[in-house]
Amino acid sequence: MTVYSFTQILERCARLGVSQKQLCRVADVNEGTLSRAKKAEREPTNRIRRRLSAAIDDIAAERGVVFVDEGQETRQ
After folding, report:
1. Among 3, 38, 39, 59, which is most buried by a count of CB atoms within 10 Å?
2. Which GO terms describe its molecular function (predicted)?
3. CATH match for 6-75 among 3.40.50.300, 3.40.190.10, 1.10.260.40, 2.40.50.140
């Protein structure tokens, strides 16, 4: 599994149209943790990034979206 940077996680969320609330629910991460990281403009811990990355991949797979390159995606 790829662990994305916080910036990549936020970009993928935006491209998928996933809300912060939905991402946190799927990742089992407290929404406040994500809000604080965004506000402080710093990377969350590796554990949190792993959970968020896995959640993004799960949501993308559920929707049939495959990220092939930065800024591009395809639907299956």
Report:
1. 59
2. DNA binding
3. 1.10.260.40
Residue 56, number of CB atoms within 10 A of its CB: 25
Are 14 and 59 spatial neighbours (Cβ–Cβ below 8 Å)? no
Taking the C-alpha atoms of residue 43 and residue 58, their distance in angstroms, rounded to an integer, is 21
End-to-end CA distance of the chain: 20
The owner of tokens 């910036």 is 7
> Measured between alpha carbons, how far is 62 from 45 in angstroms, rounded to an integer?
26
